[in-house]
Description:
Strand content: 5-15%
Radius of gyration: 18 Å
Order of helices and strands: EHEHHHHEHEHHEHH
Largest sheet: 5 strands, parallel
Distance between the termini: 31 Å
Shape: globular
Helix content: 40-55%
Structural class: alpha/beta
Amino acid sequence: TNRPRAGQGTQSMRPKVIYVLGAHRSGSTVLGVTLGNCENVFFAGELHSWLTWRGVPRLGGEEGAQLWKSVRENVEGAEELFGHQTELYIDRSSALRRLHKWPTVRRRLLKRYRRLNEDLYLAIASATGASHIVDTSHYPLRALQLKKLSGIDLYLLFLVRDPQGVVASLDPRDTTSGSKPPLTTNLHLWATYLLSSLAFLRHPRNRRMFVRHEDFLADPEGVLRQILDRTGSSAAIPDLASLRTGYPLH
């Protein structure tokens, strides 16, 4: 088709992607929602799941469904990658356990994966009118792939939380949400923080920021201002007493 590819327009058309990496249960949802209440910032949620869920959102009701339908219609060729493969072999840190598949399965997926994600961010920016897109997918291996996209301006937020808080949030005795044994959680944290540090330190200094969840809770306005300034946004701090969830994918 003759539809312009992501990154072929002017510099002003390039979406700024704020990618939150680090461990799950580190407070990325509340940070993403808060950022999403800022002018021209769209909280997209965990976009690594877009292919797994075939572009269909889990939240947002009818308005959210219409928004993500518009996005889906503007990402050509996505059907070829719908399913779990990109998560298993590219995004998740556990892909390192499948190194024997990298020369075949992963290599076959990578080129289309990169092109599709570039088009996905462009489609989201077009559908929402946002200049900034917040992706809270967490995975450091995904961040390494996003760094290779020429059609977006990528900013990394390395979000960390007191490890005791992460372990407690995954307490196996809590039957209301996902859980992991403490040893498994600690091993997961070590691996995630190591990979996240590598991805973070390889990114340009002016496009990366280290954020502690506890600092955000103590001074949300101050931390938000730092993030917005770092990502080139002049948006005002939203009313933190009346935040809206918006229409994230997940």
